[in-house]
Amino acid sequence: MAETLPLPPNSGGPPSMVEHPKLSVHGLSKNFVYQGNPLTVLENVDIELKANEFICLVGSSGCGKSTLLKIIAGLMSPTMGEVRVEGEAVEGPGSDRGMVFQSYSLFPWLTVAKNVEFGLKLQGLPKAERRERIAYYLDVVGLSRFANALPKQLSGGMKQRAAIARALANEPEVMLMDEPFGALDAQTKEQLQQFMQEVWERTHMTILMVTHDVEEAIFLSHRVYIMDSHPGRIRENLHIPLPEHRELDIKITPKFLELKRYITNQLGH
Amino acid sequence: MTEFSSTEAEPAVPNDKRFSHEGATTAPIQKSAKKRLRLRPSTFWSVRQGIPTWLKILMPIIGISVPLIAWSILSYGGFVKDIFLPAPTTVISTGIELFTEDELIKDIVASASRVLGGFALAGLVSVPIGLLMGTFESIASLLNPFVSAVRYMPVAAFVPLIVIWAGIDETAKFLIVFLGIVLYNIAMIVDAVRAIPDELLNAAYTLGSNRLVLLFKVIFPAALPSIMNTMRVNIAGAWNFLILAELIAAEQGLGFRIIRSQRYLQTDRVLFCILIIGLIGLLTDFLLKQLGMFLTPWYEQGER
Ligand SMILES: Nc1ncnc2c1ncn2[C@@H]1O[C@H](COP(=O)(O)OP(=O)(O)OP(=O)(O)O)[C@@H](O)[C@H]1O
Ligand SMILES: [Mg+2]
After folding, report:
1. What's the pTM value of the predicted model, to 2 decimals?
2. Which residues contact B211 (CB under 8 A, 6 or more apart)?
3. A41 in contact with ligand 1, CB cutoff 6 A
């Protein structure tokens, strides 16, 4: 069971003295009003991500994964509880929490490079540095050749890679990803899973990714949070005892299949 | 009625149960012969799949020539008196006369500049207000009672008032055109802003946008194609209101021409002036479309 110890308030001591987790969520609840009745979508959720961790959050459809991610991103306010980034409580969205959405969210009027540049300009980076970062992250996602293409000229997988590059280039403290590969076909999806692992190996970004694809979660993450539904709660915080670097064929090893069976069973409850 | 309900094809089950399993099992499912539903390809009735070039050329020709032929038959055939419907050639020769002897071009310029002036003013006012109302619910709540109520008041009813306020000079005409379209503009721009997908706004937020950046760098460009379309639709309305304005008080302009020609029963002149307005409309529509494509080349083709 998750602990619900209250953390010391934000004002206590300089943050640099204590080792804070990159991202922490404490006692978070969310109620909606549905047809006049309160509906508890999230109940007492606790989550912690250390620096450089790649964490997946799995749960059945409608259990509140997107809601949780939106609250963490500051796009929605919680009914109770709080979100901290490096120990500092946050309210509202900010560039410290980058996000990749399930549907394509590129700005259609900007080229791929300009999309990536959007956040960099807001940060006030000088032009040379912007150009450098655009080049680097477009290379990371393999879209250097399409820097000047408009989103409408890209395939679904390419759009999603561009959106990932845009979020990465901002170099947020945490990357939040809401089923980023949900709308893609099986092959593209596997390619992007491999690609995501490479991205992590190159950047060591702290990532929290929502998915309902159990294989994807095991393949990518160091830990998996398994969620219950109605109300949405963290059921289990499962360490994935697989080597850090994984090839796609790990998906058919007994260890992997055992993990998959276990998580699927947990989700079935 | 209820006795027959179980034998009817459309069972009289309560509405909320019609699509549930219980609803389905209480009524017997009638099995009729299997019928395959297949769509046959069609050139003429193709939906969103384009038509061949010959059809694209042929259809407008038919669309223009059929009314022309009907008109010719009616007038040359002597079915209708000249005073009600003059012949096409009469209208054209009158038109040439209007241009060469009566300085019609001055009226065209006068009317077109009034439309442009009122229209531009409406654009300048409606774009910021529409963007603000579409973006901020507080601003929408503030202005909605006014915008919605006034939109239903016919501008024609305001004309006497405007004449009292602004007299009968150019200001009054600008004002009538402006009032006629500004509220429609606002309502349509508000809808355009509300139709912007949440994801775009959320993406901007998580990239570090503040509300000002959101408004200028995301909402405005995202709504721009729809704003351009709104302009295209509403400039037609601007012409309506201009003629209204010119019918009431003017010494110049196409509306003024029309009303004076009517007084002397010069049907050919009335018709020619109406045709000119139509042609100007076609030209404006084309120009606005080009402007739209120039301003928003990123917008998906075919959606225009
Ligand atoms: N704005 C809202 N108002 C009322 N209820 C909402 C609202 N947004 C979400 N919900 C409810 O909250 C629950 C969780 O929604 P959420 O989108 O977070 O689920 P999810 O886990 O992301 O599902 P999926 O895997 O299908 O994306 C759903 O039951 C939904 O009906
Ligand atoms: Mg979701």
Report:
1. 0.83
2. none
3. yes
Architecture of the domain whose range is B88-303? Orthogonal Bundle (1.10)
Whether the bond into B160 is cis, omega within 30 of 0: no
Q: Given the CA of residue A67, which atom of ligand 1 is nearest to it?
A: 18
- Which residues fall within 8 angstroms of residue A63, CB to CB, at 6 or more apart? A227, A228, A229, A230, A232
- Computed over every residue of chain A, the mean pLDDT equals 89
What residues in A contact B197, CB-CB < 8 Å? 103, 105
Q: Domain residue spans in chain A?
A: 22-96+190-269, 97-171
User: Mean pLDDT for chain B?
Assistant: 86
Residue A169: C-alpha distances to residues A165, A189, A196, B221 (Å): 6, 22, 14, 22
Interface of A with B in 95-124 (CB under 8 A): 95, 97-99, 101, 103-110, 118-119, 122-123
Topology of domain A22-96+190-269, CATH: Rossmann fold (3.40.50)
For residue A154, name the pLDDT band (cuts at 50, 70, 90).
very high
Q: Where exactly are the structural domains of chain B?
A: 88-303
In this structure, which amino acid lies at residue B277? Answer: I
> For residue B237, what are the contacts with CB-CB under 8 A and spacing of at least 6?
B180, B181, B184
3-state secondary structure of A201: helix
Average the pLDDT over B13-35 and give the result.
58
